[in-house]
Amino acid sequence: MATKTLNIAIDEDLLKEIDSAVKKDRGSRSEYFRRLALADLERRTRWERLMKTGKDVGTQMGITSEQQVYDILNQ
User: Which of 8, 27, 54, 65 is the most exposed place for a label (fewest CB within 10 A)?
Assistant: First the structure.
């Protein structure tokens, strides 16, 4: 797998916290950020699927506005 090197700016206090977590896991900063990116991409994919399913179900139920959703949830 080809890799690319990134330069990012991070607050010094945050970097200290990250380094502390990395040290406990006996890992590296690079691995930390790889795992973070993969987790975020997976979360975004799940969220998109959830929203699509919600829209599909809403369409099947005849829901045409957000207000109708709030009304149903408040019942």
Answer: 8
Give the DSSP letter of residue 62.
T
- Angle CA 68–70–75, to nearest 5: 95
User: Can you say whether residue 3 is alpha, beta or left, with left for phi > 0 and alpha for psi between -120 and 50 degrees?
Assistant: beta
Give percent above pLDDT 90 in the chain.
92
Over the stretch 28-40, which tens digit does the pLDDT of each residue have? Answer: 999 999 999 999 9
Q: Which residue has the tokens 């699509």?
A: 52
Q: What is the pTM of this model?
A: 0.72
Q: Is residue 3 part of a domain?
A: no
